[in-house]
Structure formats: C-alpha cells, structure tokens
Amino acid sequence: MRRAAIVSPDFFEQAERPLRKRGFDVFAVPFSSRVDERIAGHPDLQLFAADGRAFVHPDMPEDFTAVLSRYADITVCSTRLGALYPEDCPYNIAFTGEAALCRRSIIPPEIAAFFDARGIPVIDVPQGYARCSTLVVGGKTIITEDEGIAKAARTAGFDVTVVRPGFIPLKGFKRGFIGGCSGASVSVGVRLCGEVNRGDLMTSPRIGSHHTINLPANEEQPLPESADTDTHTDTVFLSGTLSGHPDWKTMHAKISSRGKKVVELSAFPAEDYGSIMFL
Looking at the predicted structure, is the pLDDT value of residue 148 above 80? Predict the structure, then answer.
C-alpha cells in the first residue's frame, strides 16, 4: 500500500520530487487561519499521525481530510487551534513508535483516548511544541534542544542527545527547531483506511468546494521502475542539509548508530517548515 507525506505548502515544491521518488504521495497541508500566519502551514500543528490513524483539528478542510482518509483512518478531533501558545500546539506530539512525548494537559481527548486504548506510553513534558523540538530517530532514541524534554525522556529510559539551539532558520522568527526541519516514518500496525470519525458519528468524507486538492501526478502515471516504494522506517528525512549546525556530526553519528540513514530533501540549509508527517 502506498503511503503519504504531508509537508508545508512553503516546502512542497522542494520536497515533492524527492519524496515521490521514494514512493510517497506528497500533499501540502492547507494553511490554517487559526494560528500565527508565520506557522500557518506547519503540518505538525494541524495533525497527529500514529499507527495507521491520523487526528486532525475540526476546522481542517473536508476535501483534505478526504484525501488523508485514503492513507489512514481519520479522527476529526474536538479541539480547535488557537492563535496563541499553547492553544496552537495541542497536536504537536512527538511519536517515536514506542511512546509519545507531549504536554499531556493540552492534547485533544481523542488522542489521549487513543494512547490509552493502544497502551502507548505518554511522556509528559513541559514544552508544548514537543514535536517541533524533537528529531525523532525512533524507538527510544531522540535528539532535542529542549532540556525539559531531555530530562523527562531520560527519566523514561530514552537515549537522548541534546544539541545546541538555533542554526535552523524559521521565517519570521529568530530561530527554528530541530524537529521542524525533519520527519521520520515510524508508524506501525495494520492499516484499515477510509474511515472518517467525528466523535461517535461515522461519515463518508465529502469533497468541499472551498479548497482545492491537487492529486499527485502518480495517480495518473506510474512511478518509474527504479522508484523505491518501501516504508522508509530506516530513514530520517531533513528539509535540507544540517552541515552548518555545530552539532551535526554528533547528530549524524547517533542516527547512524541506530541503523538509520539520513536523506536531505534539498541541497539548501535545512529550514523549519514544520515536521514532515507520514501516513
């Protein structure tokens, strides 16, 4: 089954070709009018994905939700986004495949119930932007610039590499974050796709007229025979190169030590466009 990668509209042009080459259908998340316009296109603020399910905010355009439902079961949550922190980050959860790192008090109840039902451990951290601040290597290994996340994760038995903050641009802000320039495909489990769940109401997704979804070119033409169509769970994707980060060698060594490889999706310095999300 094919998989999807969700990226910022500001990063789509750079990311579409290299991700498609690796077997992903690539979509740009719609801009949200409910958060600061500088981060309105960050996927990790608008949805959370794990284990074959995606959770979206209630104002996500229905046509985009319908597209996502081709790759995962969808839960439309009750928690709306807000313009100010931490109301803009209830979906900003770092899922490693074995545990979820988040500020538990702000996450949507639907996601909390999912964690409880699946027996997914939740590591409560003070940082609301948990996903933005965490490069997920997978399992119990993370890289972060946030000391609060590092302390909580280490207490839970994680292997944590702390790097210096900064050195990653985020347009409109003094600096970006390590998680916001990265993405890792760590979802596991059986995929039963096509459902859209709004609380207790199960509905068929409707295509709305207020937003246009451009389906990827590979819906009409096959990928080249050389294209890689595996799930890339052995890969950490970056929006560009981190060679200018003073701790890059340390980060790369840690990623490699866990049997993972790094794919840079552009030749430019990595920027924080919001985490790349995989379904």
Answer: yes
Please give the single-letter amino acid code of residue 247.
D
Residue 221 amino acid letter = Q
pTM of the model: 0.87
Q: Count CB-CB contacts under 10 A for residue 135.
A: 28
Burial of 212 (0-12, 13-18, 19+ CB in 10 A): exposed
pLDDT at 220 > cutoff 80: no
Listed residue (91, 106, 101, 105) closest to 135, CA to CA: 101
Mean pLDDT of all residues in 171-200: 73
Q: How many CB atoms within 10 Å of residue 171?
A: 11
Rg value, the chain, Cα: 17
Helix (H) / strand (E) containing 237: strand 235-238
Residue that the structure tokens 């890339």 belong to? 232
For residues 143 and 134, is the Cβ–Cβ distance under 8 A?
yes
Tokens 């750079």, located at residue: 14
